[in-house]
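Re: the request from the purification team.
They wanted to know what the chain is likely to look like in 3D before they choose a buffer screen. I agreed to run a prediction and write the result into the notebook, where they can find it.
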Amino acid sequence: MIYKDKKIVWIFLLPALIFLIGFLYIPFFVSIYNSLFHIKDLAGVDKTWVGLQNYIELFRDTNIHTSLINTAIMMVLMVVFELGLGALFALFVDGVRRGLNSTEQYFSSQ
């Protein structure tokens, strides 16, 4: 074991755990809980239990289907182009030699 005294480990982990619980986990579970209600006002005082009805309406909506398809297409295109351009730039920069400008370097390696 690196640390025999676990107190120092908890001192360093505690801020990250507080941040994760306060800004990630609690809002996530509160959103899941609130999604089971029909909330009429912004404060959430007037709630009506609807269960999974909100999710049923969500998946029946054609606009959601269109947005999910557009999101999937955008994800694929972004990965392909980012990966492709990154690999192209990496190959281009890999052969750079000191003292040559980019066009001399490109044509001299052919």
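For the purification team: The two ends are 54 Å apart (CA to CA).
Please add any questions underneath this entry.
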